[in-house]
Design goal:
The structure is a homodimer. The first copy, chain A, is 34% helix and 21% strand. Chain A starts with a helix and ends in a 12-residue tail after the last helix. Chain A is built from 17 helices and 18 strands. The longest helix of chain A has 17 residues. By secondary structure, chain A is of the alpha+beta class. Chain A has four domains: 86 residues, Uridine Diphospho-n-acetylenolpyruvylglucosamine Reductase, domain 2 (2-Layer Sandwich); 119 residues, Uridine Diphospho-n-acetylenolpyruvylglucosamine Reductase, domain 3; 113 residues, Alpha-Beta Plaits (2-Layer Sandwich), CATH 3.30.70.2190; 111 residues, Alpha-Beta Plaits (2-Layer Sandwich), CATH 3.30.70.2740. At the A-B interface, strand 9, helix 9, helix 11 and helix 17 of A face strand 9, helix 9, helix 11 and helix 17 of B. Chains A, B: It comes from Arcicella aurantiaca.
Chain lengths: 462, 462
């Protein structure tokens, strides 16, 4: 039944070039993270324009055909998962940067543009597109919008939601909603774009966007800091926000266990600071005034060392040292080479709760498994931590037990089970911890309104 | 039929103290702007809690009773207009600041808190709530959220949408949606708050919010600048954004006609700069490093004078001078004492289009009326201009003609008929200029989903 009627209809309408059959699509990967896992789908549509996306959706809507939008396939929560019954739509051919408007500081970009390509084009034009994350070489702008990506500079420039000015979306029934607003302020009716940002392709398919650009930074200051008190890490963050003339762009916390792992053999990184501090902070600024920015940065470090707010600090003084410091924070794939299998989490919580939260999880994990590995680090400045847990197995019962330990303590402190990654398929069972029954009902109501047949990214999120 | 059954039901349920009858409500004003215009309504409900708002809505929903949410009654587009058939709900008794969280920099606030009171309480606690606008002494936080207020410092700190972290809302059927998120990043399911921010009370009644706080500024630098070229005003803005270490908080443009009006008798303001410049810019920074901030600010002015980017500049060097400079920009009520009646507009457009746009309007207004008065000024840094037009009459035909002249040129340049004020009743007829048929249909679909009986702020926006 694979080569069913609808696939032929799509081929007849869009041309053979735009529709890959199940067999043709199967040679492609299902995810950039899992080499060897092939794409399973009824067909893979490769539209070249919003009109083609609309045509595809009209046909699928008429046939009650489920559709899964695909960008760079970097999602880590099953948000792009397909079955043999789904039609996948990849935005990869809609990859044109349509306009970089230097005077109004905006870029108009199709959904299939790869983040790194956009960063480069904007930088070549003398400006900055500030979204930055590990998957930038693969992830696409449409996916960044659908998943409301965060990343490494959200502290300074905001998450994706704050960078989107205008949006074009194709609804489940093929309607094209063009809200291509270029303005900072617009109160003319409901701001529809927010429905689609962060809703993981369940309410519409993002096809185009107008994004805010920033001035290219002229200064970058980076240091790795060692601290023995989490309270001090909070105070140091507050001091950094106050005293760095709004240049603070990253404030990344690393718990000792992760630091030790990343700076000990077989890791190739040596430790820039001794391995005995309880916490490490990678602090970075991006600014416009090199001299002033550096002075303020170094003053902050010196004063914080003097008054005992921080215990140690080392500046990155070359590109090599930048790569080294950032590598320790960012090269998380190293964890997977040492431990297998690994459960990966991405929670947010008030920074005042972080210390207790991590201690609680650590204790509970150790109570359950003797030789569990547990690593914590993340965007402390954004209230967002990444957690890695490895306890030997990854069967469903183990997964559930680990999730329970990580997620349950979030509810009483008003935390969220996902700051960046989203819900996808994998976290659906826990969504009720972060959202009330009334909120869930309203989400379902919105889903039913915008996608009455439930064909858009089925079973994800709600 | 005024004292109908439903009013008695409300009294029986909530107590006499919480429900004013038509007669009791009539002594209250319908708007802070129009003294002497009395409040017309079937009854005025004064709930003390979200639960009471919910009870009221359940009764109104069951009885198909229309409801108009009221805050500080400072809306200028008919967004709080009531008829004798409506029940008004004022949030004025829900005016508690529940928590100022200094460590996480958030405030939890009920909808009826007056903006100025919130600003003061937060300042007393050593932080800043950055929303600031002319009506701050009357407007309430719930209204600021429902109308997505902008104001004088949006350039630096964002509009209200960017300041809201968590929201509690009562739906048309009385359901309480509590999304009291405290975190900067949260991707657990749809971000429901954005449905209610800026939708002018047509989708739900805001009852409580968690708002982001900022560090209190330690420096303030202000200058009035004269320029003869709009192109230079754009370049000067770009230079200010680049060279002031992110402290730029206001960039207000004033066209010559408005400057001359505000600095000539019978106005009590004398002109800080000669009256013959084509444009004036009121530029202000708020920062954390007094010495650096002032140096950068003065360097920018000196260099811009030297290289001819600006033609003249004067620094505000005392509170008196601050009041003077800002008074010229802000004391718009003076216009109403000189001209009557006055039509008031609040448009947004790309800054590169502003010069032509204002010229076009001026020409078209003069072609229509010989002695028309036309004043333009506003938040240029946000792409947002306020326009005042007075042409002798304010009958419907005149109003329509003026609106046509102001609004029609916005469509081809992708502008918006309202940046801050919203649609309310008064701009509904023109919404189609800023939004497509498909967008309007989606707005109506959302309205029907959330308010199937159309009882919430009826006939507003959609």
């Amino acid at each position: 039944m694979i080569n069913s009627n609808i696939v032929q209809t799509l081929i007849d309408t869009l041309g053979k070039d735009s529709i890959l059959t199940h067999e043709e699509a199967f040679v492609r990967p299902a995810s950039v993270w899992r080499a060897g896992e092939n794409l399973q789908c009824k067909a893979l549509a490769r539209p070249k324009s919003p009109t083609e996306v609309s045509e595809i959706m009209k046909i699928c809507f008429a046939n009650n055909q489920t559709v899964v939008p695909h960008g760079g396939l970097t999602n880590v929560v099953g948000g792009v998962k397909t079955s043999i019954d789904d039609i996948a739509i990849t935005l990869e051919r809609m990859n044109v940067i349509e306009e970089i408007d230097l005077r109004n500081k905006t870029v108009t970009v199709q959904a299939g543009v790869i983040l790194q390509d956009l960063q480069k084009a904007v930088a070549d034009a003398g400006l900055l597109f500030p979204l930055d994350l590990g998957a930038k070489g693969s992830c696409m702008i449409g996916g960044n919008i659908s998943s409301n990506a965060g990343g490494l500079q959200a502290l300074r420039y905001g998450v994706m939601r704050q960078l989107v000015l205008g949006l074009e979306v194709v609804l489940a029934d093929g309607t094209i909603i063009s809200s291509m607003n270029k303005m900072m302020k617009n109160n003319a009716g409901y701001d529809l774009k927010h429905l689609f940002i962060g809703s993981e392709g369940t309410l519409g398919i993002v096809t185009k966007a107008i994004l805010k650009l920033e001035d290219a930074p002229k200064s970058r200051n980076t240091a790795l800091v060692g601290l023995n008190s989490f309270e001090n890490a909070i105070d140091f963050l507050h001091q950094a926000k106050k005293n760095l003339a709004n240049t603070l762009s990253s404030y990344e916390i690393i718990w000792q266990d992760y630091y030790q792992l990343m700076t000990s053999s077989p890791s190739t990184f040596s430790p820039p600071l001794p391995q005995n501090y309880a916490y490490y902070v990678l602090i970075e600024t991006l600014g416009q005034s090199p001299e002033t920015d550096t002075t303020l940065f170094q003053n902050l470090l010196e004063q914080s060392l003097e008054n005992g707010l921080i215990d140690d600090a080392v500046l990155a003084q070359s590109q090599q040292e930048l790569d080294w410091f950032w590598g320790i924070r960012e090269k998380v794939e190293f964890v997977f080479s040492v431990h297998k299998p690994v459960f990966l989490f991405d929670v947010s919580l008030p920074i005042t709760e972080m210390e207790n939260y991590i201690e609680t999880i650590k204790t509970n994990l150790k109570n359950e498994w003797n030789d569990v590995a547990f690593y914590a680090f993340g965007h402390m400045g954004d209230g967002n931590l990444h957690l890695f847990v490895s306890c030997g197995d990854d069967d469903e019962i183990t997964r559930h037990k680990v999730e329970e330990i990580v997620f349950m303590p979030l509810q009483p402190i008003g935390g969220s089970i996902t700051a960046e990654h989203g819900i996808g398929l994998e976290k659906k069972a826990w969504l009720h911890l972060s959202r009330s029954e009334e909120e869930m009902a309203l989400m379902r109501m919105l889903k039913n309104t915008l996608d009455p047949k439930g064909i858009l990214n089925p079973n994800k999120v709600v």
